[in-house]
Amino acid sequence: MALDDDVVVVNGLNFEQRHGKERVRVARVWRNQDGRQFFVEWNVGISLLSDCAAAYVSDDNSDIVATDTMKNTVYAKAKECSDQLSVEDFAILLAKHFTLSYKQVTTTIVKIAEKSWERVSVNGQPHNHGFKLGSEKHTTEVIFKKSGVLQVSSGIEGLSVLKTTQSGFERFHRDRYTALPETRERILATEMSASWRYSFDSLYSIPKRQCYFTETYLDVKKLLVDTFFGPPKEGVYSPSVQYTLYEMAKNVLSRVHVISSVRLKMPNLHFLPANISTKDNRSIVKFEHDVYVPTDEPHGSIEACLSRLSSKL
Ligand SMILES: O=c1[nH]c(=O)c2[nH]c(=O)[nH]c2[nH]1
């Protein structure tokens, strides 16, 4: 969403500013009558686009919403949420609060990352109040304008996936600097980041169902992961990270109709063949698709965004 309408002319110069609070960490527990407890941990960032130019050019702070107030609001709103809600719904609630409560605020941007605390099972039974930390984060970004225009995006950060076969890279461009051999057999590993934008454009078009965004997040995550791996027995061949990324994004758009665009970032984390030999060429370790040197740098970086023709980016 272009935020150009927040540029003003001050003393003959274009001026654009925002202020907010980053890394506000809050955790919330909800307790059910039946003894089951629910837990989330959020890292919240708030940014306000507001008419407070006076504070930049004079000592008039009267239009500044203090960033300390923003921080307190996160805890106050978390307290008010007596029913469990998705991270997206919490971001919408905060964005709505700041945009509608302050006359000088024209736009609020709320970004939240949720840690993946998952309920543990003990002896095969889900534990009432025990959680363990998974690796990936569920992220969201909500932009809410005074005009009522809303933009909701969600994402996944740090989802590490790897397959030990069904990946290759052949027939790529070669020149005098190319050393990489072609292969139809390699490890494919990435730490995926995904973000997608919902087509909802106002508060009224947001589905009211309590777990709507959480369910959609889990659907998208499953589509991405299932497409990466393919069926459990035979898998699916990946001729390049680019091809697999495109298939993943395409499947999300074709299956989840409320999503208008999806961006995927898939670093190619190389597992190099372990070939070790002595100075006189005696092999100590000969690579037979069994021993690898894991690396995380340098890594390939592959990123693309796929959106419906009708969507505004
Ligand atoms: O899937 C791949 N895509 C690339 O662009 C690339 N480049 C490279 O060296 N290896 C790979 N693998």
From TrEMBL:
State where O2 binds.
T67, N268
Annotated positions binding urate: T67, D68, F169, R186, V241, Q242, N268
Highest rank taxon of the organism: Eukaryota
**Where does this one sit in the cell?**
Peroxisome
The protein's name: Uricase
Q: Where does 5-hydroxyisourate bind?
A: T67, D68, F169, R186, V241, Q242, N268
Q: What class of enzyme is it?
A: oxidoreductase
Which EC number(s) does the record attach to this protein? 1.7.3.3
Natural source organism: Cucurbita moschata (Winter crookneck squash)
Q: Which GO terms describe its biological process?
A: purine nucleobase catabolic process; urate catabolic process
This protein's GO cellular component annotations are: peroxisome
Pfam families for this protein: Uricase
Q: What does this protein do?
A: Catalyzes the oxidation of uric acid to 5-hydroxyisourate, which is further processed to form (S)-allantoin.
Q: Which reaction does it catalyse?
A: urate + O2 + H2O = 5-hydroxyisourate + H2O2
